[in-house]
Amino acid sequence: MAGLAHLGVGLAAKRAAPRVPLGILVLCAYAIDLLFMVFWLLRLERLPKGAKARARAAAEGRKTAAVDLAGGPDQAGGPAPTDDPDPPAPWSHGLFMAVVWSALAGLIAHLLRRRPRLSLFIALLVFSHWIVDFITQPMRASFPGQLGLPLLFRDSRKVGLGLYSSSRVANVCEYGSVVVGALVYGLTLVKLRRERAAGPASP
Fold first, then answer.
1. Is position 190 within any domain?
2. What span, in angstroms and rounded, lies between the C-alpha atoms of 48 and 104?
3. Domain total for the chain?
4. By residue range, what is the domain housing residue 21?
5. Contact criterion met (CB below 8 Å) for 102 and 123
6. pLDDT score for 33
7. What is the pTM of this model?
8. Are 149 and 137 a contacting pair, CB within 8 Å?
9. Kind and range of the H or E element at 158?
10. How far apart are CA 69 and CA 66, in angstroms?
11. For the chain, which end, N or C, has fewer CB atoms within 10 Å of the first or last residue's CB respectively?
12. At residue 56, does pLDDT exceed 70?
């Protein structure tokens, strides 16, 4: 998953919605991944083959080449990765359900704030997660068997531009997204401070 790229989007979103707390913006940018975690706990969606082993190896500073990617039960607890090298995640990351979750987020925002433009922005920010994943997946640099994002449900066609087929490109884009997002966020804060210091405009 393009974890840091979503953070960059959440940070940069402050420019378009300066009055919305940063935590809400970042939460919206990660909403689809959070839904994946829920469906993973419910055993409706699974991690790619060897995904947890790769994550543990990275945390311990070992090279992923030394990791046994044969699958099997995961010793860290929770559902084990499936034998499928690219299990579909239609309930969280499928295009159809991503539209549903985005619309639901916009509806909740509308019920809470009654501001149509803000509600539309929240919906688009949630959907930006699917757009980023569409650009980056299949991430063959990390998961050679990955095929992309499902359009509908389990057996539907999978799509993706595959930007992260190169680990070098993936690293540049991931860290670059955070740098750009943080820069946009910082400039937005400076602008807001100046506006507050200037006070209300004269009639």
1. yes
2. 27
3. 1
4. 3-33+87-196
5. yes
6. 93
7. 0.77
8. yes
9. strand 158-159
10. 9
11. C
12. no
